[in-house]
Amino acid sequence: MKKIIQFVKESYAELRKVIWPSREDVISSVKVVIISTIIVAAVLGLVDVLLLFGIRAIF
User: Fold this and answer.
1) Rounded to two decimals, what is the model's pTM?
2) How many CA atoms, within 13 angstroms, populate the side-chain half-sphere of residue 2?
3) In b/e form, how buried is each residue of 36-59, taking b as 16+ CB within 10 angstroms?
4) Residue 59: predicted pLDDT
5) Residue-wise DSSP of the chain
6) Per-residue pLDDT reduced to its tens digit, 8-57
7) Who contacts 21 (Cβ-Cβ below 8 Å, separation ≥6)?
Protein backbone atom coordinates (compact mmCIF):
# COMPACT_ATOMS: atom_id res chain seq x y z
CA MET A 1 0.00 0.00 0.00
CA LYS A 2 2.91 2.33 0.74
CA LYS A 3 4.21 1.92 -2.81
CA ILE A 4 0.84 2.92 -4.26
CA ILE A 5 0.68 6.03 -2.09
CA GLN A 6 4.26 6.90 -3.00
CA PHE A 7 3.46 6.42 -6.69
CA VAL A 8 0.44 8.73 -6.49
CA LYS A 9 2.45 11.40 -4.67
CA GLU A 10 5.29 11.22 -7.19
CA SER A 11 2.87 11.29 -10.10
CA TYR A 12 1.18 14.38 -8.69
CA ALA A 13 4.57 16.04 -8.17
CA GLU A 14 5.53 15.32 -11.80
CA LEU A 15 2.22 16.68 -13.08
CA ARG A 16 2.89 19.94 -11.27
CA LYS A 17 6.12 20.31 -13.29
CA VAL A 18 4.31 20.02 -16.62
CA ILE A 19 3.99 23.20 -18.63
CA TRP A 20 0.46 22.95 -19.98
CA PRO A 21 -0.28 24.58 -23.35
CA SER A 22 -2.45 27.65 -23.45
CA ARG A 23 -5.95 27.56 -24.87
CA GLU A 24 -4.73 29.37 -27.99
CA ASP A 25 -1.98 26.79 -28.53
CA VAL A 26 -4.45 23.94 -28.26
CA ILE A 27 -6.91 25.58 -30.66
CA SER A 28 -4.12 26.26 -33.14
CA SER A 29 -2.94 22.65 -32.97
CA VAL A 30 -6.48 21.33 -33.42
CA LYS A 31 -6.92 23.51 -36.51
CA VAL A 32 -3.70 22.13 -38.00
CA VAL A 33 -4.81 18.54 -37.34
CA ILE A 34 -8.28 19.09 -38.82
CA ILE A 35 -6.95 20.83 -41.93
CA SER A 36 -4.27 18.16 -42.41
CA THR A 37 -6.87 15.42 -42.06
CA ILE A 38 -9.13 17.05 -44.64
CA ILE A 39 -6.24 17.45 -47.09
CA VAL A 40 -5.10 13.84 -46.69
CA ALA A 41 -8.69 12.60 -47.07
CA ALA A 42 -9.12 14.65 -50.25
CA VAL A 43 -5.87 13.36 -51.74
CA LEU A 44 -6.71 9.75 -50.90
CA GLY A 45 -10.22 10.21 -52.30
CA LEU A 46 -8.78 11.61 -55.53
CA VAL A 47 -6.33 8.71 -55.82
CA ASP A 48 -9.20 6.28 -55.20
CA VAL A 49 -11.33 7.84 -57.93
CA LEU A 50 -8.44 7.89 -60.40
CA LEU A 51 -7.65 4.25 -59.72
CA LEU A 52 -11.32 3.36 -60.08
CA PHE A 53 -11.51 5.07 -63.49
CA GLY A 54 -8.24 3.43 -64.53
CA ILE A 55 -9.41 -0.04 -63.56
CA ARG A 56 -12.77 0.48 -65.28
CA ALA A 57 -10.99 1.65 -68.44
CA ILE A 58 -8.82 -1.49 -68.47
CA PHE A 59 -11.65 -3.94 -67.82
Assistant:
1) 0.68
2) 0
3) eeeeeeeeeeeeeeeeeeeeeeee
4) 86
5) -HHHHHHHHHHHHHHHH--PPPHHHHHHHHHHHHHHHHHHHHHHHHHHHHHHHHHHHH-
6) 999 999 999 999 999 999 999 999 999 999 999 999 999 999 999 999 99
7) 29
